[in-house]
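Holo prediction. Input below; ligand is shikimate-3-phosphate.
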Amino acid sequence: MKPIKLDFNARALRGNLSMPGDKSISHRAIILGSIANGTTTVKNFLPAKDCLRTLEVFRCLGVQIVQDNYTVTIDGKGIAGLVEPDKPLYFGNSGTTARLMLGLLSGLPFFTTVYGDQSLSQRPMDRVIKPLKMMGASIFGRDSHTRLPLAINGQPLSSITYEMEIESAQVKSAILLAGLYAEGETTVIERIPTRNHTELMLKHFGGSLKTRNNQISIQGKQQLKATQINVPGDFSSAAFFIAGALILQNSQLVIKNIGLNPTRTGMLDVLWQMGAHIQVSDIKETNGERVGNLTIETSNLCGITIDGKLIPRLIDELPIISLIATQAEGQTVIKNAEELRVKETDRIKAVVDVLTTLGASIKETADGMIINGKTTLIGGSVSAYGDHRMAMMIIIASLITKEPIYIDDLSCMNISYPRFIHDLKQIVI
Ligand code: S3P
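Structure of the complex:
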């Protein structure tokens, strides 16, 4: 592929932006809308590749879904209304589709085969398969039944109490979805809280779910009622513009209608600790999710340590936080983030490779990175590793490099944010 020159000629980022719908919430709206009784309408749906995979999967399972850009209407089939697909289900690059669907399909009374793209086929599925098998699921596949392609022979499931071994909302959600089909009450115990969109949305669909301390329990065999979902803007997408405004001189940016669910906004806590000027305003609640506006100004930042309970609250933001850290005075240490190694690519290796090429002082560790700032970034030829969040981080880096950056591919941004460059151009001055 011919390298693409990134040349935005930006002096500052200024203006107002609204974010496309949240990816995690868009997936869950399609899933729960499809198994609820009645017609669900989803507004500000994210029409990006990953969420469209989930939508297509439910069409293959017999659900009528009409998508008109950002609005989706789902003719819910009820908890027992999905039908056996007549072809393998394709999950593309989407880890969320894969993990959540394994949970759902395990309890349905039919046979399914599922597969994904090259990246998804490398990613671990045993983290969901293990608890699902404890519930009685019958799942077979490659690499001792741990990786896609997989075959699921739907079974009656029994409820379990499961203590999470890794911090993963995808695993938690897969168990809760399987729990909907199981006899009795299924409980998930989390050591560290992860994003809770599944729990909030189940309640919004009228589901009976108990959350106390770090335990979430769901009653099996219950019906869900169709509803309307307004998907908040995606905080993980906003993160790239927040970073750009912080590190590019003379910037001031307002980002409207962003999801501010506390299980997702660890990056804000980190940035405030680093000295960032970011104000939150107009907080409200839509379908159980906190939403608000952010105003961001260029800031002098200092390095910090990011670890422990913070990690699940900012896991997808770590590539862009690493870029910010190159522009902060002193050392930033990222620890306990070994999960980054099993994302769309090994994001520890990818971030260290890209930022080193650009001239940063950054070192890879087993479970994170150590970054020494502040460094001038030069430019050069880099790879996005086929990873949407790497590509967007590299574009933001190109706003501050002395020389141009050449990147191998930008099409991967279609996974979560097809309009990223269009939106960036709105605020570049
Ligand atoms: C997601 C959970 C996180 C996150 C991913 C989306 C979700 O993954 O990284 O982008 O929608 O549940 P893990 O559950 O693997 O941590």
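Residues 24, 96, 168-170, 173, 195, 315-316, 339 surround shikimate-3-phosphate (CB under 6 Å). That is the main takeaway for now.
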